[in-house]
Design a protein that fits this description.
This protein starts with a helix and ends with a helix. The protein has a single domain, classed as A middle domain of Talin 1 (Up-down Bundle). The longest helix is centred in the N-terminal third of the chain and has 34 residues. It contains eleven helices and four strands, in the order ααααβαβααααβαβα. Helix content is 82%, strand content 3%. With 310 residues, the chain is mainly α.
Length: 310
């Protein structure tokens, strides 16, 4: 009976994620039009921050007693974002990638990943390391702000929302983030209970169950954005979320309580960086095709299978 309730609550969580993702995208697009900001920037800021709230909530909840789960969540979410989210989105429709993304955003994502590896070499991500990560987040946010001011696009009369639409757009974003938060908590909490009933370790739960659960907002939001023709928001959401996962989620978790790093994690680091490198190479032609999407999704499934059974 309890398992049936957990399954039902997981489904409710997924439904909330779908509604939340849809409203977050709609609100983000309207805000982009209002301020003349590119959809890529909106994807990397407003939408990416919003879809990262589940990871933040899960990490704060697990900070003191389940540090291994936090690190697994961050790494697993970043792998899932590239393999599962971009893979599925590209399968639905080929993703057009701007040159700016290839030149700036993806290298930043790789650099942040390497920073996390460097901080882990001594076997711990300390509170001082957490402060460094949060400091880097502030620098990145300033960079994005300055970049946004340079990339302002001209607005046509058709693009400018009506005055009463501004409040509605902000409301959609707020409600979308709230639904993503509640939906992710319901999904993750009940998925963890189901996983624990099968005796799965915290690290594996973090890398797989929680990572997939907290990546569902990115998946739902990106798929909805792509289906609506807003490819830049979809890709921007993933890149921004991966950067925030390391700088913000890991930073906050480490500041609350230092996180121990076990040797097995470095294998997962290699996989995370490997997926990012594959993404960078795939983007060189300015298009992530369906075959590449299928390859990313298949590689992610193989990773999950190896993580669970070996």
């Amino acid at each position: 009976m309890e398992i049936a309730i957990n399954i039902a609550l997981t489904i409710v969580g997924l439904v909330l994620l779908c509604f939340g993702g849809n409203w977050l995208v709609n609100g983000g697009v309207n805000i982009a039009k209002k301020f003349g900001i590119s959809k890529m920037i909106i994807g990397m800021t407003v939408v990416a921050y919003g879809t990262s709230t589940p990871e933040l909530a899960a990490s704060i909840a697990a900070a003191r007693d389940h540090g291994e789960m936090i690190l697994g969540n961050v790494i697993g979410s970043n792998i899932a974002n590239v393999g599962m989210v971009i893979g599925i989105a590209a399968i639905l429709t080929p993703l057009i990638v701007s040159k700016t993304t290839i030149r700036k955003e993806v290298p930043i994502m790789l650099g942040v990943s390497l920073l996390l590896v460097a901080l882990s070499i001594d076997g711990e991500i300390s509170q001082y390391d957490g402060i460094l990560l949060i400091g880097s987040l502030i620098v990145f946010t300033i960079f994005i702000y300055k970049d946004a001011t340079k990339q302002r696009i001209e607005k046509t009369d058709e693009d400018i929302p009506k005055k009463n639409a501004y409040g509605k757009s902000i409301g959609l974003i707020a409600i979308g983030i709230a639904l993503l938060y509640v939906g992710a908590i319901l999904t993750v909490d009940n998925a963890v209970i189901l996983a624990q009933s099968f005796g799965i370790s915290e690290r594996i739960i973090g890398l797989t169950v929680i990572a997939i659960g907290t990546s569902l907002p990115e998946l739902i939001t990106s798929v909805i954005a792509v289906r609506k023709g807003h490819t830049d928001i979809g890709i921007g959401t993933i890149i921004g979320s991966n950067i925030y996962n390391i700088l913000m989620i890991m930073g906050v978790g480490a500041i609350i309580a230092g996180v121990a790093v076990v040797s097995e994690v470095f294998i997962d680091y290699a996989v995370m960086i490997g997926f990012s490198l594959v993404l960078l190479v795939a983007m060189k032609k300015g298009l992530i095709t369906r075959p590449i999407g299928i390859a990313l999704a298949a590689a992610y499934l193989i990773y999950l299978a190896v993580t669970f059974f070996f």
